[in-house]
Amino acid sequence: MIKEICNHKNINRTLKDALGNTVSIATLISGTLKGNQRVSIKVSASNRKHKIFADADSMGNIRGYISDELLNVSIDNVDDLSIEELIGHTGCIQVLKDLGMHSIFTGITDMPNGNIVDDFSYYFKQSEQTDSFFSINMVYNDNNEIVLCRGIMAQLLPGAPTNLIDAIKETIFENHSILSNLGDNESLKEIPYLLFEDIEIVEQYPVQFFCGCSKEAFYPMLYSLSKEELVDAFENKKSMEIVCNVCGKKHSFSSQDIKKFIQ
Ligand SMILES: [Zn+2]
Hints:
This protein has eleven helices and ten strands. α10 packs across α11 (255-262). By secondary structure, it is α+β, with helices and mostly antiparallel strands. The two termini are 41 Å apart. The strands form three sheets. A six-stranded mixed sheet has the order 5-4-1-2-3-8. The site of zinc ion has 6 residues, from loops.
């Protein structure tokens, strides 16, 4: 899923890391949601127009995207930046949890680490008073495409000793190679047992990329064109195409669609 979200975009590795980390964290949080609960994450760099978004629901429907302003600078100015330089010293994380029944929880924190992943551990400690640890492992091929992504989110249950989170962190750090090891799906199921002795898998479910965009949702964008442009397209039987920058899907408007719009 992370490959699908990150690889289709013409973005460099730093942006893939940033998007992949943000979407992975939203995906892991989706495992804590129930019923029709949803979570939306916004990571804003010091340059507030440079943003990364991710949404997830309890069914494992996930999407993620980068703001146009950040996408547009990617080719020339982001190439040599690390993720910390991209975020800068005054980045911030905003999380909106729609808990259903008109109950919405919002949290906002700064980003002392500037690498997104550790900043989310900080977010949960500050905003939800929960000791948490995240680890996202992405492996790239020679063409700078993501070939593997594995994530872990650890949170302590109430009453658990706080040093337990450090023990988990250390175990994952020491066994980093297991998480980055390419392997078949069968070995994926064994990974938790390779990392921890005394564990039990209580639930498994798939996650999938889901944008939810539709041609209808893009009709309002035709308002940004002048009437002359629309009439010209209709009279010359030209169709127009609008590309969703979340999923890359092309929505085509025929001259007949445009005629209806003009009328
Ligand atoms: Zn879309």
